[in-house]
Design goal:
The complex is a heterodimer of chains A (266) and B (312). Chain A has 266 residues and is an all-alpha fold. Chain A contains 10 helices and no strands. Chain A has one domain. The two termini of chain A are 36 Å apart. Chain B starts with 5 loop residues before the first strand and ends with a helix. Classes of the chains: A mainly alpha (266), B alpha/beta (312). Chain A binds chain B through residues 1-7, 9-10, 13-15, 17-18, 20-22, 24-25, 28-29, 32-33, 96, 99-101, 103-111, 261, 265-266, and chain B through 30-31, 52-56, 73-75, 77-80, 82, 84, 86, 88-93, 97-98, 101-102, 104-109, 148-149, 152-155, 183-186.
Chain lengths: 266, 312
């Protein structure tokens, strides 16, 4: 055997190149079909904006001095951020599993933490890109105030991270596209629509207000909206703590699933 | 210290009540061109999946150049290139992008591009480098799959049925390239259904049956052990006399293969058949090849069952 011709594969390799490559692949994956992954959700959000603001702008005022359309925009942005962060990691994983090409990643020395980080960051970026596009287009309609940009950034990042992580769990768990669709239709959609995107939960009967407090989407929407208007249904610090803790719990569950090889290496 | 390329020690794998692997021990030295043969369900792919870290063994351990595939999985996988059996691909990217990504997962950047070019050239993919994976023909997808496994220039290469359903041209091209890699020092482990490939390419052969290694020797030794003539007689559905039945190695569709130690036995078989009123429809006489070794080792169950059912 002529050892000289075989390179020593354990030498001179940077540990960040592997996870960076996976992140780059995940970003390119959604960017290649950006008409579907970015343009489509932006259009959907704008249609909601046009219809609801047309019907309700003159009739509803949730906060004093804030028009309904203004109130609606941050909620719509956050709802799209959350839905798209979830869609990115979940659809990438389920597609790779069904197509079988997940094996290309499983054969590599990437650790479970590197795998998690690449899918998580890609989901955050997809969510934030969609959110930013909606914000930029919405600026044509309404002059939005920003009371606390740090809250906007914190809830944007944490919310998309939470849903990106939830998407990884769904992608690992689901074996078929219909199971993934059930996740989307029976968990993500109801939780996001019933989170106070279109209304303040103070307008609800007391029982449904209590129920809304059990919905993690409510805290993400409310905290994000606080960043724009400086007011919300609950304290933004409480929301931040709940969203942060939820992210940590889901991240730990995901890392445990990945480390054990649940459904991926079985 | 010069570790073996692959060291498999007491590997068991159970899927529920199914014992896919029943204590496999196998050592493959660096630089070998090794064939792992066996019928469907023998456990070859299960063994390769454990080696690649895609499934965990129930018991036992495997190391790649001294690194345990579970405890030191990063080093072990870095040293290993596995071509999966299923024809899988990522529809979002072209061939070159996929190879760059694959090398990137292993920590390699643009400095690896000359090697990627060499792989593309060696596998006849150079003019398809910018073609989307989705648009490649089946044969081209298979080449791309092999190229992906080689993208990080692994010293140990595992090819699981790489030539299943591919044309002669690709097989020739693939084997020329793999032989070159072997000459350059890469260890090659191959599973195949084409026994003539294993015979022509591999210096050592392991045969698996029901989750165990049933034969392990150099190709030459295995052929010597089973040297002699093989007489293939087309007889149809008949009941053989006892003294002739003991010489049968394999039965399929009324074609009986007899293992003979010398030419005189031919006369014996034919006389005995004639005395029993059995008519010979067709006759062939061959030297032993790896297929005979394979059939006599892993095909016994089939032959035994066939003979038993006929004699009862």
């Amino acid at each position: 055997m002529s050892d000289s011709k075989v390179i020593d594969p354990l030498k001179s390799r940077s540990s960040w190149v592997g996870p960076w490559t996976l992140l780059k692949k995940e970003l390119l994956r959604f960017w290649r079909v950006s008409f579907q992954t970015v343009a489509a959700p932006v259009i959907t959000a704008l249609l909601y904006l046009l219809i609801f603001s047309h019907v309700l702008d003159k009739h509803v005022q949730v906060y004093d001095g804030v028009a309904y359309t203004e109130f609606l925009i941050p909620g719509l942005i956050m709802m799209s951020v959350l839905q798209n962060a979830f869609a990115n990691s979940s659809s990438s994983l389920i597609q790779s599993k069904v197509m079988g090409n997940i094996v290309f990643v499983l054969l590599t020395p990437l650790t479970h933490l590197q795998f998690f980080m690449a899918f998580l960051i890609a989901a955050i970026i997809r969510g934030l890109v969609v959110g930013l596009c909606i914000y930029l287009v919405a600026m044509w309609f309404v002059d939005l105030t920003v009371a606390n940009p740090w809250m906007i950034i914190a809830f944007g990042l944490l919310g998309s991270a939470l849903l990106g992580t939830f998407g990884i769990i769904a992608g690992i768990w689901a074996d078929r596209f219909d199971q993934m669709a059930a996740f989307q239709n029976f968990i993500i959609m109801p939780l996001s629509f019933l989170s106070g995107v279109f209304y303040s939960i103070h307008s609800l009967p007391p029982f449904w207000q209590k129920v809304s407090h059990l919905n993690p989407f409510f805290y993400m929407i409310d905290g994000f909206r606080y960043g724009f208007f400086g007011k919300g249904d609950v304290s933004p610090v409480l929301s931040l703590l709940i969203v942060g803790a939820s992210f940590l719990v889901l991240a730990l569950v995901t890392l445990k699933m990945l480390k054990s090889g649940y459904k991926l290496r079985s | 210290m010069n570790h073996p390329a692959i060291h498999i020690h007491g590997v068991h794998k159970n899927f529920g009540t199914l014992h896919a692997l029943n204590g496999v021990d196998l050592t493959i030295e660096q630089g070998e061109f090794f064939a792992l043969l066996g019928p469907n369900g023998a456990g070859k792919s299960t063994l390769i999946n454990i080696l690649a870290g895609l499934i965990a063994p129930t018991a036992g351990s495997i190391s790649v150049m001294g690194f345990d595939v579970q405890k030191q999985y990063q080093q072990a996988r870095q040293l290993l290139g596995v071509v999966p059996q299923e024809l899988v691909f990522d529809p979002f990217f072209n061939v070159r992008e996929m190879l760059r990504f694959q090398a990137g997962y292993f920590g390699l950047g643009r400095e690896n591009d000359p090697w990627v070019d060499e792989v593309l050239e060696g596998l006849g993919l150079a003019d398809k480098a910018h073609t989307n994976m989705r648009k490649l023909s089946g044969g081209m997808k298979r080449r791309a799959l092999i190229a992906q496994a080689l993208a990080h220039k692994p010293p140990v290469i595992v090819l699981d049925e790489p030539t299943a359903g591919v044309d002669v041209e690709l097989r020739q091209m693939l084997w020329e390239f793999i032989k070159k890699l072997n000459r350059d020092g890469h260890t090659i482990i191959l599973t195949t259904h084409y026994l003539e490939e294993a015979e022509a390419l591999c210096s050592r052969v392991g045969m698996m049956k029901q989750g165990k290694i049933v034969a392990l020797d150099s190709t030459a030794n295995l052929l010597n052990k089973f040297s002699g003539k093989h007489l293939r007689l087309t007889l149809g559905n008949v009941s053989l006399p006892q003294d002739v039945a003991r010489l049968v190695r394999h039965v399929e569709n009324g074609i009986y293969t007899f293992a003979l130690t010398d030419m005189i036995q031919i006369e014996f078989v034919l006389t005995s058949l004639r005395a029993s009123g059995i008519k010979v429809i067709d006759m062939q006489l061959n030297e032993a090849d790896l297929e005979d070794v394979f059939l006599s080792l892993v095909g016994n169950v089939v032959v035994d069952q066939h003979l038993t059912s006929q004699s009862s």
